[in-house]
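seq:
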Amino acid sequence: MTDSRLRTLRDHIRWAVSRFHASELFFGHGTDNAWDEARQLVLGALHLPWEIADSYLDCRLEDDERTYLQGLLKQRIEDRIPTAYLLGEAWFCGMPFVVDERVLIPRSPIAELIGQQFEPWLPHTPARILDLCTGSGCIGIACAVAFPEAEVVLGDISFEALEVASENIHRHNLEDRVYGVQGDGFSGLPKQRFDLIVSNPPYVDAEDFADMPAEYQHEPALGLACGDDGLDLVRRMLAEAADHLTERGILIVEVGNSQVHVEELYPEVDFTWLEFEQGGHGVFLLAAAQCREHQALFRQHVLG
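struct:
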């Protein structure tokens, strides 16, 4: 990339916005427009806060800073690598998390529920919480901060994802009550019960997965696609959830665009589909009693 006239932070942000538009980049990993994406990448690469005073944007960069930053911008444009992977960090619930291509980039609307301590849905303060399909651990770790007395288990089938989650547990000094468990679904958690099970599992159906922008190709497919209708794992989770919830526990699962498949598959089940002021959709809630009531039906769809 030509760099002779790019000297200041403002120069680089302006240049990036123009090139992002011209290259038709996709924004879906923390920002939704070229300006915010450019600002996040430029400021983040130089370890500067998002809230930096506007006057600082006219500061000139050192040669090594320009070289480093322009290399990242080139990767974002030419290779379509998401900004969070380039920076090695993403924010969720106002907290920083280590991320790389072993895990999905945090972006779940469940963050809004955590910020509200799941009110009014949780009947009591949870003593044990499970974040199933944890990836980076962001949901479970944010829950641990929201409920400072709770024990939190981070479950995932991927050893590599759990390595990242372990880094984030350490980063937030939560080793005393947050830990990871490897297993496929509930397989690593025999006879364990939880007051709150929350999950952002792979749920992208085959059609949507084939149409995803290039940026998503850098994320682990294991965390995105899950069968023709996206519900291969969700079916098993529903069939087993009653065995892992306490008497008044609740299950919250994100299924995104596969909401339509859930509703078609289980017309008899009165799912509570949660609404979000900050955007997002396709997150359902079931109480433990509902999981028990419909467990036979849920199991039929796994066996059948």
